[in-house]
């Protein structure tokens, strides 16, 4: 998938799954309006079929639990240009398109931005190879490497300079 292209996340109608029923791959695909290959991917991703039943059959309660858990994990997944804000408890973009970059190692950079919604400092570590793509979304400010001698830690108390 090309960078920047986001497939709209269609919500699966998980409520259609009956806890007490069992479903084979075709039935799950039909019930949830998705492709059989998607169902097969879930099976690879940890959806547990019933033992010793061929073709594969999944219990409704297992299917429901799997999809609910997966939806939660998705909600917290950050896009490449998002940070996870611990105050908002959600992925957020950095305010004013500004992100500070510190080069930690030859391959890894540490990013800091302020939550566009609540102003809380957010941190994220990325591979340095991801920086060119980020530079398209943000004005990246490269900071000097952190010094250990008496350098003050970055303020975490929301002590922001006037916007
Ligand atoms: Zn926030």
From TrEMBL:
Q: Which Pfam families match?
A: HTH_17
Using the record's annotation, list all stretches that form the Helix-turn-helix domain.
Answer: 23-71
Q: What is this protein called?
A: Excisionase family DNA binding protein
Native source organism of the sequence? Ancylobacter aquaticus
